[in-house]
Specification:
Layout lengths: L1 H7 L1 H11 L6 E5 L5 H9 L4 E6 L2 H13 L6 E5 L12 E7 L8 H11 E12 L9 H13 L3 E3 L3 E5 L2 E10 L2
Helix pairs in contact: 2-3
The structure holds S-adenosylmethionine.
S-adenosylmethionine binds next to helix 2.
C-alpha cells in the first residue's frame, strides 16, 4: 500500500508543497504523511527549516524515515508516529500544516482541526487535499466542502474558495486557508 501511495499520490503531495511555497526557513508539518513523498519535497524547499512528518502508522513512519535517509534530507526532517487529533507540536510553531488524503480518516475532525489551528503560527497556511472519491458517501461533495469551510472559519482560518483539481489518481478538493489568529 505504501508503495502504491508513493507513486499514485506523489503528484498530490508535491502539489501541496508547492501551494505552501515554503520559505527556506519554514517549519512545515505534514499530517498523515504516508510514505513521505511530501516530507522530502518540503525539506528540499526549506533547507534552513524543519519538516515534520506525522502518521499514526508505524509502517508509514518507517517508510518516511527510510525515504528521508535515502534522499539525504534526514537532518531537515523529523518523523513521528502521531494522529491529527494529537499533534506533538508546540502552539504556533508551524508556518504550514498540510494534510493530503487523510482528513476523511481522522477519528474526530473537530479535534483535528483544533490541533491544526493550535500549531499554526499567526498567518500560517493550512493546505488540505482530498480525492473527491474519498469523501463520505452519505454527504454530497459540495455540502462536505462547505461544512469544512465553515468549521475552519469558526476557528479564524480565512479560506480561499476551494478548487477541484485533476491529479493522476483522479479529481481532488484543494483547500487553502490562512490562520488569522
Ligand atoms: C491514503 S493515505 C495518504 C498518505 C499520503 N498523504 C498520500 O497522499 O499518499 C492516508 C494516511 O493517513 C494516515 N492516517 C490515518 N488516520 C489518521 C489520523 N487520524 N491522523 C493523521 N493521519 C492519519 C494513514 O496512516 C495513512 O498513512
Amino acid at each position: 500500500m505504501a508503495t502504491v501511495m508513493a507513486s499514485g499520490n506523489a503528484d498530490m503531495e508535491l502539489a501541496a508543497v508547492e501551494l505552501v511555497d515554503p520559505r527556506p526557513d519554514s517549519n512545515v508539518a505534514m499530517i498523515g504523511c504516508g510514505p513521505g513523498v511530501g516530507v522530502v519535497a518540503g525539506a528540499r524547499r526549506a533547507p534552513n527549516g524543519m519538516v515534520i512528518g506525522l502518521d499514526p502508522s508505524a509502517v508509514m513512519v518507517e517508510r518516511t524515515r527510510t525515504r528521508c535517509r535515502r534522499e539525504r534530507v534526514e537532518h531537515l526532517t523529523r518523523v513521528e508516529r502521531a494522529a491529527a487529533e494529537s499533534l506533538p507540536l508546540p502552539d504556533r510553531s508551524q508556518d504550514a500544516v498540510v494534510s493530503v488524503n487523510n482528513i476523511q480518516l481522522w477519528s474526530d475532525r473537530s479535534i483535528g482541526l483544533d490541533e491544526c489551528v493550535r500549531v499554526l503560527a499567526p498567518g500560517g497556511v493550512l493546505v488540505v487535499l482530498l480525492h473527491t472519491w474519498a469523501m463520505p458517501d452519505d454527504v454530497p461533495y459540495a455540502e462536505w466542502v462547505a461544512e469544512l469551510r465553515t468549521d475552519l472559519s469558526a476557528r479564524d482560518v480565512q479560506v480561499e474558495p476551494p478548487q477541484t483539481q485533476r491529479f493522476r489518481s483522479g479529481p481532488a478538493m484543494v483547500l487553502i486557508g490562512r490562520s488569522a489568529r
